[in-house]
Automatic annotation (TrEMBL):
SUPFAM superfamilies: P-loop containing nucleoside triphosphate hydrolases. InterPro entries: AAA+_ATPase, ATPase_Atu1862_pred, HerA-like, HerA_central, P-loop_NTPase. Residues 24-214 form the AAA+ ATPase domain. This is AAA+ ATPase domain-containing protein.
Length: 482
């Protein structure tokens, strides 16, 4: 089987070949500033080798799903799966030798990094009988192997560095051949970059990146200026899979890609300023309030079965009535206990099972005999009490609870706080009150909560350039849009 592919042509017009079998043993590093042609190069490499070897692409920008139509790659939407499902997918990919694109475009940056890290780790940890050869392409690798700690959490940084280091340092024996592409060599962890033996260096302007690229190519530092002068789509190549001496390569054409994206300049629309203003501003509030189609419901939390087991055990411990009791008085007292519990400081930061256990303990202490709410009913009534919906009239309560029908149990309390504020005409919800209802002190979790509720079509978030957020609840009357 011929393992050579042509990736482009040299300065003299001669074709430049790439030995895929050699690449599997020696790995590849691609560098180039934005617009230098990195994605085009990776696409050319993937297209030409698609029939030779299994391919896995980590795609944070949504650039490579078009490979599916022409070459049969399976596109995996990272935002549609839970962490355990992503790991299971990775194991099946290695078992069945499927070529896939892991599309992370629908996730925020830290979620992209965690998803990719768990996916790569599962590829690395596959059983020995599934160690088939596979090219693993990681675009924007500086995100997944940062040279220094950035804004992501420390545990996330350690997780992703470990996954990328395993791919580049220890992946060869497991059949994993890493291909990493980065905009900045200075931002890429050195222990990841150092494991590559093949290099394709595109245009870059910063001195520190030019010097590192020249060092990797074995060029004298005074020759580093050559890298700054490269045209788009031109790369300097070196490595056992390509050439033994630095060689300039113009990357060849590709079959797939984003054909809808316009390159170069285009004539502007011939529209009068007043008409353009009307196009931009008419019915803006109505469009912002449109509800997006709800995505499929997320998988149930893994702790749910444990919580239900605890709840069932607690229910069995409640004494059964020996004689008829005043059920209305018992029901009223149960509601009072839930209301008192919801008002206690710090209770929202406890787990649902701990809250329910505290509730049942107080009922036993007062010797309340009668039907007790189960875990699901308690969580709902606890959320209603904590949000203060009891202060509203029955019709408003009914409307809010109807809108909350699609909200997950663990997000019900903060949604009710938002809905109550919206009914009162308040578009800026007190974040301390929202954090208390959600049981968190992390601003990041609050942002992710609001993003999730907005994706579900339950709320509309508007944030101005000053950083102020206003919230609206589609379908709720008497909302002041601010």
């Amino acid at each position: 089987m011929d393992t050579q592919i042509v990736i482009g042509h040299g300065a003299n017009g001669a074709p430049v070949s790439f030995d895929i079998e050699e690449l599997l043993a020696t790995r590849l590093l691609v560098q180039g500033n934005s617009g230098s042609g990195k994605s085009h190069l990776l696409r050319r490499l993937l297209e030409e080798s698609a029939g030779m070897v299994q391919q896995v692409v980590i795609d944070p920008e949504g650039d490579f799903p078009s490979l599916a139509e022409e070459f049969g790659h399976v596109v995996i939407d990272g935002s549609a799966y839970a962490p355990a499902e992503i790991e299971a997918l990775a194991r099946r990919i290695r078992e069945h030798r499927a070529s896939v694109v892991l599309d992370l475009d629908g996730l925020e940056v830290e979620q992209q990094i965690r998803c990719a890290a768990q996916f790569l780790t599962a590829l690395f940890d596959a059983p020995r009988e599934h160690w088939y050869p596979v090219l693993v392409v990681v675009d924007e690798a500086q995100m997944f192997a940062p040279a220094v700690a950035g804004e992501i959490a420390e545990d996330t940084r350690r997780m992703t560095l470990s996954a990328m280091t395993n791919l580049m340092c220890r992946g060869r024996k497991r059949g994993l051949a890493g291909i990493v592409a980065t905009q900045r060599l200075a931002k890429l962890a050195k222990n990841v970059a150092a494991e590559a033996s093949n290099f394709l260096m595109g245009r870059t302007f910063l001195d520190i990146d030019m010097v590192r690229a020249a060092d990797l190519l074995g060029m004298e530092r005074r020759q580093a200026e050559r890298i700054r002068e490269l045209e788009r789509g031109h790369f300097l190549a070196l490595g056992p899979a390509i050439t033994r001496v630095p060689l300039s390569v113009k990357i060849g054409p590709v079959k797939t890609g984003n054909k809808a994206r316009a390159e170069g300049l285009m004539a502007l629309p011939d529209t009068a300023p007043a008409d353009m203003e009307a196009l931009l501003t008419s019915n803006l509030a109505a469009e912002a309030a449109k509800s997006a189609p709800p995505p499929p419901p997320p998988p149930a939390p893994r702790v749910e079965d444990v919580e239900r087991t605890i709840a069932s055990a607690e229910e069995r411990q409640v004494p059964q009535p020996a004689e008829p009791a005043d059920t209305s008085a018992v029901a009223t007292r149960i509601e009072e206990i839930i209301f008192e519990l919801a008002g206690e400081e710090g209770i929202a930061f406890q787990s649902a099972s701990a809250q329910y256990q505290t509730f049942l303990t107080r009922c036993r202490r007062e010797r309340l005999i009668g039907p007790m709410p189960d875990m699901q009913s308690f969580r709902r009534r606890f959320a209603i009490a904590g949000a203060g919906l009891g202060d509203l009239d029955e019709a408003v309560q009914s409307r809010i609870l109807q809108l909350a029908g699609r909200v997950e149990e663990d997000l019900l309390a903060p949604f009710l706080v938002i809905a109550k504020a919206a009914h009162a005409g308040e578009t800026q919800v007190d974040e301390n009150e929202l954090a208390q209802a959600y049981g968190t002190s992390s601003p990041g979790r609050i942002r992710r909560l609001l993003d999730h509720l907005e994706r579900q079509g339950l709320i509309v978030v508007r944030e101005d350039f000053g950083g102020d957020r206003t919230l609206m609840v589609p379908g709720l009357e008497n909302v002041n849009a601010g």
